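go over this record:
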Amino acid sequence: MSFAKVSVIGAGGWGSALAQLLSSRGVPVTIWAHEPAQADEINSSHTNKKFLPGVTLNPSVRATSSMEEAAKADLFVMVPPSKFLPEVARQLGRAGVTAGVPLVCCTKGLEHQSGRLMTQVLAEIFPANPVAALSGPNHAEEVARGTPAAAVVAADDHELAARIRDFFNTGNFRAYSVDDVTGVELGGALKNIYAIAAGISDGLGLGDNAKAALVTRSLAEMVRLGTRLGGQRDTFHGLSGLGDLIVTCFSQHSRNRGVGERLGHGEKWADIEKSMVMVAEGVPTARAAQAEARKHGVDTPLLDTVYAVLFENLSPRDGLLRLLARDTKSEKEGIA
């Protein structure tokens, strides 16, 4: 059984790309945009130049700035930045969501103060609605243009995960399903931190050998922290873990890698932030994840270094030297 009407909550690049993807199903797709002018642009010119430049959206994709209008759907695709997701979700709840209608969380991050998963935030706000997560190595620019890509849908309910998986399977976009919601969400959130580290490596001009070693050790650290927080080890070696880590660390589309590269060139985060149109989720996630790592006693030298560069004025070069000066150990030591 498919879904007859879809609302994408969030008109950023990823939200617009997912609306484009699902419109190929031939079902009505509505994007909720915070700014009325953005909704008007999507409806009149079928573009979203600020967040998804160079892409013409299908005419069947409609936009609205009315949450009451967006609330009339039988599938919600949630894509606000993590900072705004709780309040946007509460707005949607106040607009009136039918009990039992599923929500698919496509936001990659942790709640800034509590460290909670985005699906946990949604489940609290919508106790009468099932919640799933979609994640994977997906840059909006490529998905919107229909190039081949894959993702994973996670839900505690196997039937719900399969139903959403099949709905997202559209031509060049291939979806899989798992029951490890925690692992899928943590992979999608944590990889952004390590993409900042990879960008710092690029900015410092450290070369391919160093970057390959960095990404490999990032995966080990992601597994160590992610399993301690409740994710399944195998999930971190799948699309939402290793797959997303690879694309985010190496792609020129990656905002988080780009932030790291600018840090490596000597810019400060406060100055970089002022110049950005879209959110680099790895920055707030670094703060939340570092607090979780300390709370659970997990050794996270790469995360700690990114955190210190972002928030404690550690220079990237000194951060590199600090990492290289660590005691040597067996490669398998400390891996969950």
